[in-house]
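pipeline/complex-builder :: batch 7 item 3
reading input block
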Amino acid sequence: SQQGEEDPQALSIQEGENATMNCSYKTSINNLQWYRQNSGRGLVHLILIRSNEREKHSGRLRVTLDTSKKSSSLLITASRAADTASYFCATDSIYNQGGKLIFGQGTELSVKP
Amino acid sequence: ETGVTQSPTHLIKTRGQQVTLRCSSQSGHNTVSWYQQALGQGPQFIFQYYREEENGRGNFPPRFSGLQFPNYSSELNVNALELDDSALYLCASSQENSGNTIYFGEGSWLTVV
């Protein structure tokens, strides 16, 4: 079963604009990871945020985590056409055996030049 | 480039046949997980191997089985293939079995006809 839910399911923006994607989850977590997937390809790791962290930055990416609301957001600033991809959040629940990640269904981002 | 390599990249099998997919983990990683991703869905956890032992399993039937070798590479075997097994199969590796960044390979596309 999917623990995470991404919102929106699809997002279309112009190059240069910011893109914000949200993720909600159900159970307490050790950490949350964001991934990008280009069509038909593997998952590229973007950022990991641990349950005791509230915000992390990596280049044009900013991730926030609110454990009280069981939610996270991914902000991509100054988007580029190359950012077009599907974005997934994945949670490592404290109840999981073996470090299993639970994925949402993803947000499909389209950045128009 | 994640250092996780999978083979084959694409294959077509007939219903009822058996398939073996292979994965080499990133250097220094002793944990390998396998995920199934159906078209338009997020990846679903199949199982994880840690130091050659199964260390967690998702909601998949016993005809999905695996192995991890002393060099930490891994195989996913699926017997009695069904049409619904058609999916992208992703291998992921990490250091230790929980709490760390998990890196994915490019996946193996399986089509069952």
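note: Residues 30 and 97 of chain B are 8 Å apart (CA to CA).
queue -> next item
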